Amino acid sequence: MGALEEGHFDAESPAIAFGGGGGAPAAGTIEDAVRVLLKGLGEDSDREGLRKTPMRVAKAFREGTIGYKQKVKDIVQDALFHEAGLDNGVGQAGGSGGLVVVRDIDLFSYCESCLLPFSIQCHVGYVPSGRRVLGLSKLSRVADVYAKRLQEPKRLAHEICAALQNSIAPAGVFVALQCWHIQFPEALKLNLNPGHPSRSIMQGWVRTSASSSTGVFTEKSSSLCEEFRALLKFRGVSLDSNDSGGSSIHSWCPSKSLDLRSDSLASHSILVDAVASILRSLDEDPSRKELVGTPYRYVRWLMNFRRSNFDLMKNGLTNQLENVDRYIRGGNVINSELNLPFCAQCEHHLLPFHGVVHIGFFYGTERKAIDRPGLQSIVHFYSCKLQVQERLTKQIAEAVHFVLGNGVMVVAEANHICMISRGVEKVGSNTATMAVIGQFAMDATAKSSFLEAISKSTATGG
Ligand SMILES: [Zn+2]
Ligand SMILES: [Zn+2]
User: Fold this and answer.
1) pLDDT per residue over 280-316, tens digit each?
2) Could you give the CA distance from residue 345 to residue 353 in angstroms, rounded to a whole number?
3) In this structure, what CATH number is given to the domain that contains residue 413?
4) Residue 181 Cα, ligand 1 centroid: separation in angstroms?
C-alpha cells in the first residue's frame, strides 16, 4: 500500500495555482464563488458534470437558508382554531388540555460551523391553552423556518420552542431533536473498525440530540416530559435521558476539532473569501461569533476532494497470496473484500456521499492479489475527489481489473447528503451501484455468491 498512499498524499501537497488574477468575488453571486471553489479544487467548471454545479449549489444554499426570510406569525395567524373545553382551570398539566405531540418531522439544516447539511428528526409536543389549538401541520412548518438557517442543534431546539411559545401562548412546549452530521474523512479513516467492518457505515455519522422546553414541561411536579417520551417510544424513538446536549454539542461538528491554525489554509485565502461571500449573499454575517471559522472549515472540507495530478500508481499494489478469505467457484478462486469505507464529494451538488465498497475478484494464474490495505487505497484514491457514484464504482473496478486482469465485481453502497438535503432521502436509506468486469460478467454463480457474501456480512456486522 505504501507506494499508492504516498502517491496520494504527495498529490495533496502542491499549492493550488490560480491563473488569470481571479481575485475575491466579494460583490459576485454565489455562483461566481462556487466557480472559484471549483477552480481551487483543480477542476474545470466548464466540464460537463460541473457546468450546472454552481447553479445547483447556489440554489441549495438559498433554499437551505430560506428560513431567514420567513415569519412564524404568517404561518400561525390563520391556523389557530377555537377548541372548547380545553381549559377547566384545574391543576397544571392536565388542566389546560391534553398533550399534543407531532413526531418524526424530517428536517435538515446547514451546520453553521462547516456549511454541510445535517439531518434532523424533530418531535414537538405542546399543551394547548386559552381554548386554542394550532393546526398540526403548522408545528412542522414553524420548525422548518428555524431549520432552514445556518444552525446547530441546541439553538435550533431553543428557537423552535421559543417561537411556538411566543406565537401560540400554550401552557408549555417541548421540542426534542435527533441530529446526524456527516463525519469528516480524516475521522472516518481513524474510525475504521476492522473487527466489525460494516459498523464503519454507522461511524460515518456523528449523532446528537438536543431539547428545549417551556411552561408546564419545566415544572418539577409535572409528569408531562415522561409522557412526551412515552409517546415517542411508541414510534421506536428513544431520547437520551440527558439530552440537554451540553456535553455532546462541543464535539458535534467534526470540523470543530480540526486545528485550523496549523493548516496550510493561508494559501487558500481566495477560497476562504469566496465562502465568506457566499455567507454574505445568504444575508448572514461572516463575522458573527459562530461563523468566524466557518469559511476555513468549509474550505478544509473541500480540500479533501482536490483533484490530484498524480495517476494512481498501480504497481506496488500486488502482493502474493497470504491469509485472505477466499472460496472456490467452478475451479476459480474468488476473493472478496467487503465494507471498505469511503467518502466522496458529489460533483453535481458539492456535497458528500459516503458509505462502503465491496470488491470481489478472481485470482489470476500468476496468483497475484491485492490485500485489503491496497484495495482501501484504491477506494480512497478514487473517492477523494469530485465524483458521481456510478463513475466511482466503475473506476474502482477498472483499477482492480488493471492489476489482476481477471474478473472483478464492485458494489458501492452510499448515503447521499445531497439527497438528504433535497428531502429525497433519509439517513439510513441507501444508493447501491454495481460494476462487473471480465469473468464475473459471464459467471452468474460467481456473481450471486459474491452478493450473498455481502448480504451475510451486512446481516452479521450490525
Ligand atoms: Zn458541521
Ligand atoms: Zn448530488
Assistant:
1) 999 999 999 999 999 999 998 898 888 764 445 444 4
2) 6
3) 3.30.1130.10
4) 7
